[in-house]
Amino acid sequence: MQDATKFYIDGQWVTPLSSERMEVINPATEGVIAKIALGNEDDINRAVAAAKRAFETYSQTSLDDRLALLEKLLLIYKRRYDEIAATITAELGAPITMSREQQADVGVSHLEDFITALKKLKTRDTLYNGETLLREPIGVCGLITPWNWPINQIVLKVIPALATGCTCVLKPSEFTPLNAILYAEMIDEAGFPAGTFNLVNGAGPVAGSAMSKHPDIAMMSFTGSTRAGKAITRDAAENVKRVTLELGGKSPNIVFDDVDIKDRITYSVLDVFNNSGQTCDAPTRMLVQKSIYGDAVAMAKQVGDTARVGDPTLEGDHIGPLVSHIQFDRVQSLIKAGIDEGATLLVGGTGKPDGINEGYFTKPTIFADVSPDMRIAREEIFGPVICMIPFETEEDAIAMANDTPYGLAAYIQTQDDAKAERVASKLRAGMIRINGAFPRPGSPFGGYKQSGNGREGGLFGLEDFMEIKMIHRP
């Protein structure tokens, strides 16, 4: 068992002030793989004080100096790439092929893109009225990241903070803290000045709340549940700090009757099953035009029946476990709710897959004949569960798609480009993915409504960490 109890504060690995500890569990075996400390308010105060001191000088560094540090970090990350992939497999349960090709890979692609974006960033500009605009680092940033795409979210928060001259305190998810510790080691090796980056593990209601309330933190950037995002916003309000949020989703996937059913339904099912369904913008509400609904249901069942669940340490395109017993219990309760409410169970159901007795594995599940008022159609399940809902007309599809408190992403499947543009313009979501298009690095990631505010990635992601200052001259 790995002893990972120290925090990275002010350029040193230090013993926590808190005495509380937590075991890190391998979700595939339910075995303990590490022990971490859960930081308290005193630990947060120590980290924030270090970041505040460092900001005085780091905020004045040149863009070229910061670019050099980022480029060195990129080389170190590439060298330790396989360690990151293996660690994510151990603590999250993502199959190793997926960890290498997706989970670890975004640590390269996002960092490369931020380097490109930083070179394009205008920190001094002249407005159309002739006055001078400056963009300056906002200050000390509190960063809270989730467990489902851990390195992805760490890079999307830590890198723009450091790139723009901010300093930061990172609190990763306590369920997947080990990849964050590896990343802290890389930042240290890259030579970022002491105090610019600090890592404190801890629970959201304690360490996270202490960050949100801290008067010396100028900005909170959070990715996670809508419930927690609301709590952070309330805590931050006392000091009127900036809050950016990337929260939950219940993304609609509109399948029109002009598509190649085999191609588009296969894509739609496998996209939800990726990462065991633990992706905030997964297309979990499949809205299918009635004229092809029967064929689409049959194809979804065929694809779902071939989905395999298995050991995440083995190569392959199979599905791994859910991250924890908490997530397993939640997904199971919602699958049961779907059955109890009368949805047609095509594939999967409650319980673990046949032949699997340990680990937080769940059956990939597809429901048909779901009505929009069912719990499974309205609540974010965050597991490999799909709800198929029929619709009549384009207008019906748009109304169903928008009938949700979320607005992170929406998907459109059609061969009609004009229809795709028309529908996309009416969907209340931050990202519209047409015919399986995948977001490129640098495109802003974020949503409408209760899916959050602010954007991550590229120039927009950098600007979120900056303040605007105007210079007025006579």
TrEMBL record:
PROSITE patterns: ALDEHYDE_DEHYDR_GLU
Top-rank lineage group of the source organism: Bacteria
Domain Aldehyde dehydrogenase: 13-471
Keywords attached to this entry: Oxidoreductase
Catalytic site positions: E246
Gene Ontology terms, MF aspect: oxidoreductase activity, acting on the aldehyde or oxo group of donors, NAD or NADP as acceptor
Family: Belongs to the aldehyde dehydrogenase family.
Name this protein carries in UniProt: Aldehyde dehydrogenase
Organism listed in the record: Thalassospira alkalitolerans
